[in-house]
Amino acid sequence: MSSPAADANANANVQQKVFQYENFISEVLQKDLQKVIEQRDLVYEKISQYLQLKNTIQSLKEAESPRLKTDVDLGCNFYVQAEVEDASRIFVAIGFGFFVEMTYDEALRFIEKKTSQLTAFTEQLTKDSAKIKANIRMVLEGLRELQGLEEPPESTGRDVF
């Protein structure tokens, strides 16, 4: 039979471990998960921009007009009408603030390569987020065991993220 002082000490140790695990989940794992998901969302946004550029280029190719009239944003949503004399070549942002002048076909090839690279990167980020979620579940299971709680019922649904 154990003494009340020993039980209180053991209970305090369990509570300290529970606090450490909960802190690890909230301070490390959930923040890591949030960063990965935010990074993946930014990559999806870049893919969307490249696909929008691809559609614009295809529209320009179909129009077969060397001239282009467009509105240019000067900043703070102030627009001015502009006319491009020769729209057969365009400048494409390739990253790190650099732009390269390309023909429509070159730009379309670049966009295909870039979007496939970005898609592969999003797949890796999705795998990373799944690993972090698995770690969170593992720590939560450890917490349940420490506290002597019953296992929760298995969910029939599947997490989207």
Oligomer category: single chain
Number of helices: 2
Which structural class fits the helix and strand makeup?
alpha+beta
Radius of gyration: 27 Å
Tertiary shape: rod-shaped
Strand content: 15-25%
Secondary-structure element order, N to C: HEEEEH
Mean pLDDT: 86
Low-confidence stretches: none
Major sheet, described briefly? 2 strands, antiparallel
Tally of DSSP β-strands: 4
Strand order of the largest sheet: 1-2
Roughly how many Å apart are the termini? 49 Å
Helical content stands at: 55-70%
Which short descriptors sum up this protein?
two-stranded antiparallel ribbon, two-stranded antiparallel sheet, 161 residues, rod-shaped, alpha+beta, 2 helices
Structure, explained:
It is a single chain. The protein has 161 residues and is of the alpha+beta class. Helix content is 65%, strand content 17%. The protein is built from two helices and four strands; from the N terminus they run H-E-E-E-E-H. The protein has helices at residues 4-63, 104-147, and strands at residues 68-75, 78-84, 89-95, 98-103. The strands form two sheets. It has a two-stranded antiparallel ribbon. Strand 3 and strand 4 form a beta hairpin. Helix 1 packs antiparallel against helix 2 (104-147).
